[in-house]
């Protein structure tokens, strides 16, 4: 009697672990073609992004970033600072690693935006979808990465494909959340006015709500980029090369100094990407015809 | 409403205290807690469970705990003295081992597994085929590491199909550095990519994934481990071990001794346990068998540890002083009666 009060009864415990293992292994055998197709298309797209980045000479990329930094912030020294940061990455001998890391980040950000933006709109418009998807988003952010990484490796083998999956699962969430949030919080009077002037739901969405919500949506893109950057080391665990792999090799050998350099590089890239996209949001605000309302 | 909830909690809490209070008997012998590393691989978990059974039941006044973490972090914890023991220590893979030993930060206690192996492995069906699964041999003449050069197209790299792919060891292990030199030495770098995966979990997942599909795979693996116990793998041959050539990757890995390493405080903390840990010795075959048993029956590591000790009664005499061995036997028998 006392046993049952203090410890969870043994008889009520169950184990479905092996059944799931067998199911996944069986699935990978029976769906070989489609899994292979997904794998090949992911690899091709990431590799073409990497090739595109590699075509740009290093000095041109630094110049572009300096120019953008200057334009976005309006200060010459900010542009110069970004240039110095990129130059530092190059002089640490990590330029190619940076490009490899960036290709996975860019690919997963593109995928997150493509999937997250329409999904966010759906969530804003449909309360029932919102109720279903929201707990799934919580799951995606909190489920420890390894729980789905190992099955991803069984299904897609190691390398870019599971890396892209892991990064997207983690980074898509702010895109969906902030898109839906932005659209939900557009001033109701503005939407009512649009409806009163005879616009359809679609017209009101495309011409009023989305432009109004754009600053929030762009903040979502910005957050997505930051979260994708934070997955770089996790991706190295499944064999994605780049800065994360450098960190992993160094930390596994307790070479703290050697791990610091790629670590700093990741911070620099994150800062540059963050400020540039944020600057884009701020500029948009000035250019938008509608004045931005305080978010409620 | 709020008051009623509060009352409910107070009553529940009171009940739990009473029930809990009854179960706690008042024998307050000061127990010493022994902490060992748990770096996340199966054979070590099993070795830890065996040690736990013995430390807690053949001796009085000890409790056995594990510290779960990465091997690198746990190694630092031993140096700091926060963790007492590293049972099944792959010291050849720890870059700073010799220095730490010379500095007196760690102490060699004993040799746990005298005959481990590591190197490049392929599933047996790659060489011999598997008629049951309908797999033709992919590389019938593959014997040595050098032979791999002839079979680039058998092991294609998904991300660069014109080149082959060989899976390296875990980044940061000595084995990985040596393996990379071997890869260059045999000229595999001309036609193969050397792919490092960040952890054993993913390395073994990639092997399991390929094995499941009956696809070719070549890469680093080691014994004893559950995966060599469970899958039928073949280690590629290499030149015989030579201590002068070994670090340059020009010959096979030696049979590595897996040690029991302790912090420098352990001998003072638990002097009577020291004798057990000096004698505690298993072997590659025994552990692979046990891990296969674990996998087949779905038993826990703890149940498997009991199983090993019961099946191999003579181990108790080899490991323990007579009186402790008797105590342990009595305990193992008492489990049976439950």
Textual characterization of the structure:
The complex is a heterodimer of chains A (296) and B (338). With 296 residues, chain A is mainly alpha-helical. Chain A has one domain: MetI-like (MetI-like fold, Orthogonal Bundle), CATH 1.10.3720. Chain A is 83% helix and 0% strand. Chain A has helices spanning 2-6, 17-30, 32-55, 58-73, 76-91, 95-125, 127-142, 145-156, 160-184, 188-196, 201-230, 232-237, 243-252, 256-287. In chain A, helix 6 runs antiparallel to helix 7 (127-142), helix 9 (160-184) crosses helix 11 and helix 11 packs antiparallel against helix 14 (256-287). The longest helix of chain A is centred in the last third of the chain and has 32 residues, at 256-287. Residues 286-296 of chain A have low confidence and may be disordered. Chain B has 338 residues and is α+β, with helices and mostly antiparallel strands. Chain B has 2 domains: 30-114 and 257-337, 3-Layer(aba) Sandwich (D-Maltodextrin-Binding Protein, domain 2), CATH 3.40.190.10; 117-246, Glycine betaine-binding periplasmic protein, domain 2 (D-Maltodextrin-Binding Protein, domain 2, 3-Layer(aba) Sandwich), CATH 3.40.190.100. Helices cover 46% and strands 20% of the residues of chain B. In chain B, helix 2 packs across helix 13 (301-311) and helix 12 (284-297) crosses helix 13 (301-311). The longest helix of chain B has 22 residues, at 2-23. The interface between A and B is medium-sized, with 35 and 31 residues.
Layout of strands and helices, then pairs:
The complex is a heterodimer of chains A (296) and B (338).
Chain A: H1 2-6, H2 17-30, H3 32-55, H4 58-73, H5 76-91, H6 95-125, H7 127-142, H8 145-156, H9 160-184, H10 188-196, H11 201-230, H12 232-237, H13 243-252, H14 256-287
Chain B: H1 2-23, E1 32-38, H2 42-57, E2 62-68, H3 71-80, E3 85-89, H4 97-102, E4 106-123, H5 124-128, E5 156-157, E6 160-167, H6 174-185, E7 192-195, H7 200-213, E8 219-223, H8 226-230, E9 233-235, H9 243-246, E10 256-263, H10 266-269, H11 271-279, H12 284-297, H13 301-311, H14 314-319, H15 322-337
Parallel strand pairs in B: 1-2, 6-7
Antiparallel strand pairs in B: 3-10, 4-8, 4-9, 4-10, 5-6
Helix pairs in contact in B: 2-13, 12-13
